[in-house]
Amino acid sequence: MVLTAPGQPLREIWRQQLPLPAAGQVRIRMSACGVCRTDLHIVDGELPWPGHAVVPGHEIVGRIGALGPGVTGLAVGQRVGVPWVGWTCGRCAYCQAGRENLCPQAEFTGWQREGGYADQVLADARHVFALPEGYGDAQAAPLLCAGLIGWRAYTMAGADARRIGLYGFGAAAHLIAQVAHHQGREVHAFTRPGDTAARALALELGAAWAGDSDQPPPVPLDAALLFAPVGALVPKALQAVRPGGIVVCAGIHMSDIPSFPYAWLWGERRLVSVANLTRRDGDEFLRVAATVALQIHTHTYPLDQAPQALDDLRAGRFTGAAVLLGR
Ligand SMILES: [Zn+2]
Ligand SMILES: [Zn+2]
Description:
Layout: E1 25-35, H1 37-43, E2 60-67, E3 79-82, E4 85-87, H2 93-96, E5 107-108, E6 120-124, E7 129-130, H3 137-140, H4 146-156, E8 163-167, H5 171-182, E9 186-191, H6 196-204, E10 209-212, E11 221-226, H7 233-240, E12 241-249, E13 270-273, H8 279-291, E14 298-302, H9 306-315, E15 321-325
Parallel strand pairs: 8-9, 8-11, 9-10, 11-12, 12-13, 14-15
Antiparallel strand pairs: 1-2, 1-6, 1-15, 2-3, 3-7, 4-5
Helix pairs in contact: 4-5, 4-8
The structure holds zinc ion (2 copies).
One zinc ion is lined by residues 88-89, 91-92, 94-95, 100, 103, 105.
């Protein structure tokens, strides 16, 4: 499925089998690919257009069909996952310091690099993850962005954050709520006003409290993670955290943040963003996912119904994570 310009419909194109992978690459046959809010931001033109047609999709699960020269540690037939960060330079100061998520030359899967809304994809072998057993292909897909970037946001909250608020209870929050609950933290879920299905899911997955995002929590929070791309929630989240607390914005795009009194930031509250992910985040989170049996709520679509999946995500028509299935 190809997008030739932002705001245009995704189109299905047919092509020959992809070429044999180049040095350092693997060719993967897609079996499942998650549909992420970032895909919507790309399709809707809210992120810069890369200057060429885009095959979206950066939560790719599949099996390796061919290895390029020089690839070690992976095997033909192996099930792997491809995340959002698809290539980094390995040489810049950020890469050298283990902060490859900030590499200025990084290329992203399903944006600069062809993504998983396709039968096959070529990936840089250094940025491919082995996946924990115990999750089916469709279940494993949301681990690769909702899980991974959710994990990075969650670790930024700090190990001493006991009461955690999650704003926007979609794919990422429904995974991180379970991890937080498993680790003995108190989860407060803030959902779109009136979204009773998301509230019910949050409580079922261990949240101590669930309410509308325009309400204050019943107790001050140590940390708030924002997964909804709604800038107006930032001042609300700052008012919900205690002095010394932190608000983490986890999305790649957000509507403008309205101005607010300095008093809401005062008290050494911190407001930070999370950008992308590192391979270390991936290794850590996938180890957690292997030990905590996460319940992963998916809403599946055949690959050629990707436009419908994106529409449903935009309109909030399902709970959990949308996943395209390979054919
Ligand atoms: Zn994503
Ligand atoms: Zn770099």
